[in-house]
Amino acid sequence: MKTFFLTIWSGYVRLTARWPSIGSIAPFIPLIAAWWIITELQIFPRVFLPGPVDVVRSFGTLVYTGILPEYLQDSMVRLVVGAFWGIVLGIPLGIFIGLSPRAHTVLWPPLLFFQAIGDIAWLPILVIWFGYGLTTMTVIIVYTVIFPVVLNTVLGVRSTSITLHRAALSLGASRARLLWEVVLPGALPNIITGLRNGLGYGWRALIATEIIVGTSGIGFLMFDARRGGSLVEVLLGMIILGILWYIVDAWILAPLERATGQRWGLVTQ
Amino acid sequence: MTKRSFISALWFCAPFAVLIVLWAILIPYFDVNPRLFPHLTAVVQAGIEGIQDGTLVQHIGASLLRVAVGTLLALLVAIPLGVAMGVSPVVSTFLTPLFRFFSVLAGIAWIPIATLWFGYGFGAITFIIFNAVFFIVTYNTLLGVSTIPLHVRNAAASLGAGRWAMLTEVLLPGALPNIVTGIRTGMGFAWRGLIAAEMIATNVGLGYMLFVARDFYKTEVIVLGMIVIGVLWLLLDRLLLAPIERATIERWGMVQRA
Amino acid sequence: MGVGDAVKNLVIRNLSKTYFDVYAGTQVTAVRDVSLNVPESEFISIVGPSGCGKSTILNMIAGFIPHSSGEILVGGKPVNGPGPDRGVVFQSFALFPWRTVLENVAFGPKMRGVGKVEREKIAHEFLALAKLSEAAGRYPNELSGGMQQRVGVARALANEPDVLLMDEPFASVDAQTRMTLQEELTRIWEAKRPTVIFITHDVAEAVFLANRVVALSKGKVLDEIEVDLPRPRVWDDLHENEQFKSLTARVLQLVRSA
């Protein structure tokens, strides 16, 4: 009996070693099966917990009517625009604060404080300033993404060994080259960690913003469905959010982080 | 307080003093409409009024109580569950993707379904905070336990540690840095989720205070609320969570993982 | 060591280990029909190339992994899982990073239920034996590799085991420190006279430390060689010692020929 289980486990281990994505999908099968059985047995009323079949059906309808692709696109565009500005503003600011002790003294405490205020708390006043719309959302996402990027870039710049600076200077690097050849690559693993955290927060901020002030997007889809009491679409929204972020995080950001941090043997924390 | 830490605290406060002075001077100077941004005096006044009539204290109390209840409940379930799953490499390998998936959803994405299940109010909000903390802490505990080197567990066993001693002397301390990191991240999400949820699903709390103030263009209350939110989280994170994290990770020389 | 206890010897009869390799999906034989007799207070070295099964044998004696067939008797009692009658010193030290040096050494007595004052007295005694008294209050990661392994040895001995199992304990420290540690180990052995199984791939180290060297290859015992070099042994004397040279050469030839 024991050998039997070992053989099964061995097969699973070797399968996931060859196709790692199987390892990340397989655990969901029993979960979905349990969900399906529970809803089929009607343990909870349908209105409270729709089954997987309903969710798949609603997925089909929403794709067919074009609502889902449109909303998905809206959410992704907002996230990408926000992330872009977060990076473009955040990395230079982080390098500046990391390199200048004076800037660090002056700017570090406000940075911590404004990060602590948190994205969502800005929502009411932003709505007063910019109204409901894309500007408000973009500002919130940029605001959310920028702090982890700046804070981690500062950490990365400050943890780059002073010996490396000296080595580069004595090899004839100019100040500008030093920035490009030493400071930036040295801080890169941290920058990517910051980006990963920042997008994680930004993603959630986006959903919250869409729920509260949105007129389109996945968050709006969920909240609109909730207002209409349709749990199917709420669940669908949650699943789409989870899968999307899982793909972005596990297949793009985490490997990127590993590629720089582990490959170079730089783990700074 | 030693002289050195006093000076560094002073340096920490100095930039804020500058900001406040700028605020006090620039807003009246440019004659900014108080519907767009409040005067410093108005915010201070709103703060004093809020404390005097007890509403501010009530909102803060409600928010903190929700966070405390949700977090405590989550930790009570998450840590034992994470340890139990982490000891078996088979179980932890298999379940890791599941918990990663749910960590991703943590917090805000649960608001619509939570309000449907529990209605508007304490239940829904506690559920959201529970969720934000639970999945991340479980995942981190599992990760922490499963990355304790086998040698260390073997060493304890060969020195005569039984099941209970293994848990309290090896598994929990070994996973502690991860657990603390998990709590810190989870509470970060929970705090944001709380503010968002309070805007939607309740009639008391800091988020609610902000959102109602927006309806009446009371920017001084909004700004006051933002400052309170920032200060509270900064106190919680920097004075409670970060020092614990540093103490365990740095003293024990354990590198933070994931 | 202890008084009036049963004989602290180790008997291994026809020990074999086959296991199911999850990654390869097949049965693998790591140890084949090994028999060994270690009388009380003897110091034996098991030497062989990487992958010869020497660590598997030690892990089976320690009880970390089950054996497939044969018998392991410590003081006449069969081995069934890890236990305090067999102390283990690990190649990777396996110290508890969240405990101070003193607490690490006092861990075994603590598991036996020895009171705090008494077990700290024991720990101090063994720290003094390992010349570590000054480091008592420090954490493992604040020590050098050589010092960490001294803690490892002190921790295993403080539990007064019947048999001390050492798994390539000096393989991860630098060459100079390794020689010092080897000399100290012979000194401690002469003072306490524990029964020791020492695993290594370093032939000179095996001969230097042991009364008897067991050469192992591909999971089988090739031969056993008596080492009757005089004690105390120090490297300065043995470097030029003809008997040491010829013994080392013999073991080396044995291991390489297989």
Provide the CATH topology of chain A: MetI-like fold
Number of helices of chain A: 12
End-to-end CA span of chain A: 46 Å
Uncertain stretches of chain B: none
Secondary-structure content class of chain B: mainly alpha
Structural features:
heterotrimer; B: mainly alpha; 10 helices; C: alpha/beta; four-stranded antiparallel β-sheet; 9 helices; 36% helix; globular
If you had to describe this structure to a student in words, what would you say it looks like?
- The complex is a heterotrimer of chains A (269), B (258) and C (258).
- By secondary structure, chain A is an all-alpha fold.
- Helices cover 83% and strands 0% of the residues of chain A.
- Chain A has a single domain (52-263), classed as MetI-like (MetI-like fold).
- Chain A has helices at residues 2-18, 20-25, 28-40, 52-64, 67-99, 101-117, 123-130, 134-159, 162-170, 175-213, 218-227, 231-261.
- Chain A is flat and about 75 Å long.
- The mean pLDDT of chain B is 84.
- Chain B has helices at 3-29, 40-52, 55-86, 89-105, 111-118, 122-146, 150-158, 163-201, 206-215, 219-252.
- Chain B is built from 10 helices and no strands.
- Chain C has helices at residues 54-62, 101-105, 107-111, 116-129, 145-158, 175-192, 203-209, 235-238, 242-257; strands spanning 10-21, 26-38, 43-47, 69-74, 77-78, 86-89, 163-167, 195-200, 212-217, 220-226.
- In chain C, helix 4 (116-129) packs across helix 5 (145-158).
- The interface between A and B is large, with 56 and 64 residues.
Layout of secondary structure:
The complex is a heterotrimer of chains A (269), B (258) and C (258).
Chain A: H1 2-18, H2 20-25, H3 28-40, H4 52-64, H5 67-99, H6 101-117, H7 123-130, H8 134-159, H9 162-170, H10 175-213, H11 218-227, H12 231-261
Helix pairs in contact in A: 4-12, 5-6, 5-8, 5-10, 5-11, 6-8, 7-8, 8-10, 9-10, 10-11, 10-12, 11-12
Chain B: H1 3-29, H2 40-52, H3 55-86, H4 89-105, H5 111-118, H6 122-146, H7 150-158, H8 163-201, H9 206-215, H10 219-252
Helix pairs in contact in B: 2-10, 3-6, 3-8, 3-9, 4-6, 5-6, 6-8, 7-8, 8-9, 8-10, 9-10
Chain C: E1 10-21, E2 26-38, E3 43-47, H1 54-62, E4 69-74, E5 77-78, E6 86-89, H2 101-105, H3 107-111, H4 116-129, H5 145-158, E7 163-167, H6 175-192, E8 195-200, H7 203-209, E9 212-217, E10 220-226, H8 235-238, H9 242-257
Parallel strand pairs in C: 3-8, 3-9, 6-7, 7-8
Antiparallel strand pairs in C: 1-2, 1-4, 4-5, 9-10
Helix pairs in contact in C: 4-5, 7-9
